[in-house]
Each structure stands twice: as C-alpha cells, then as structure tokens.
Amino acid sequence: MTKFQMINVEGQAVEEVELLDEIFNVEVNEHAVYLVVKNILANKRQGTQSAKTRAEVRGGGRKPWRQKGTGRARHGSIRSPIWSGGGIAFAPKPRDYSYTTPKKVRRLALKSVLTSKVQDGELVVVDKIDMQAPKTKEFAGYLKAMGVNKKALVVTEDNKNVLLSARNIPGVATGSVDSLNVYDLLKYDVLILTKDALDKVQEVYK
Fold first, then answer.
1. Structure confidence at residue 161 (pLDDT)
2. Neighbours of 22 (CB within 10 A)
3. Pairing of strands 172-175, 13-19
C-alpha cells in the first residue's frame, strides 16, 4: 500500500488514501502500452476508403488503336492504370481494421500508465465533486483551486452535472471508471479521480 494525499475541490488536504501497489506501483511496461494504443487507434479507423480498379471503371472495352503500325505504344484499354482516368492499381477497398489485444496485456498497460501518473505527479485524488447544477464557471474554479492548469481527465462515478459542467472547458474531458482506457490517460496530462472512482478502480483492477 502507498499513502497518497487526497484533497477537496478547494485544493485543501483532507486525508491520506491508500493506493494498491499492484495497480499504482507496478513496473512500467512501455511495450504493452504501445500495443494497446496501437490497438485502440486501429479500432477507431473507419476503413471506408475505396477506389476503383481497372475492372470497375466505366468504358475502355475497345482497344484504343490497332496493335502494330501506328508508331505508338501498344494498349488494350484506356482504363489501364497508366492512363489518365484509368483504374487504380491495387485499389484500396473497405475493410475492418479492428482486432483484439489479450486482456492481460490491456490490464498491464493500464496499470503501467496509472503508475506513471503517480510517479510523474499527474494524479489528483479529490474527496468528491458535488455539483447541484451544471455550472461551467464553478467547475473551472474547482480545477484552478486544485492547481490543475493542464489538459485533464476527470473520472467520477456517474454525475451528469459534472459531465455537463466540464464539456465546454477546453482540454478537459470526463469519464467513468468503466470507460477508462490507456489512450485517454496518455492524451490528458492530469488524471483527476474522485474517492468513489478510486475505490472502484482498485476494486475492478486489483
């Protein structure tokens, strides 16, 4: 167990919480992180790119000129890839780029990134973010009080008001423990976890 200082939304120290070493203090495996990020980006690809081959381009059925005697190079179709307006050689076609990475590798990568957040001082644990109504200015004030002036990912237990308050702040995103992933953790400089979210992370990934 590692002791970690928890604060409130006003930036004041409240109490110390315990971080499980098997989640927040593991040996960082950069290759596992690379594999998972590569997988996430591949799964995001639409795969809708398409172009026509010479068999699909309209026209070009007749030989443009006779084989011999014209002094010009021989051609069989004006839809050959070497002709302007012709087909594309090895044309790209719609395909599915998605694949899966083993669960153990995904977990190792997530734990590696969480460990890096702790080691680099980029983890903030707040006791709770209790918003009675969606107010962007109020939420921005909380971030300033907590000393967060970089791109931040705020992970809470489902709180609609927090989600609505944060969505108009540039560089700030919100999420739940269920949606936590390596790509988002790397994309944002600071990870803000509420106490409830921290407890769930440690319950799910221990």
1. 85
2. 11
3. unpaired
pTM beyond 0.85: the answer is no
- Residue ranges with strand state E in the chain: 2-7, 13-19, 123-126, 152-155, 172-175, 190-194
Measured CA to CA, the distance from residue 70 to residue 135 in angstroms comes to: 79
How far is the C-alpha of 204 from the C-alpha of 195, rounded, in Å? 14
pLDDT digits (tens, 9 = 90+) for 56-68: 999 989 999 999 9
Residue 190 makes CB contacts below 8 A (sequence gap 6+) with 122, 123, 124, 148, 150, 151, 152, 153
Query: Which amino acid, 104?
Result: K
- Report pLDDT digits (tens) over 12-33: 888 899 999 999 999 999 999 9
Contact residues for 171 (Cβ-Cβ < 8 A; gap 6+): 150, 151, 152, 188
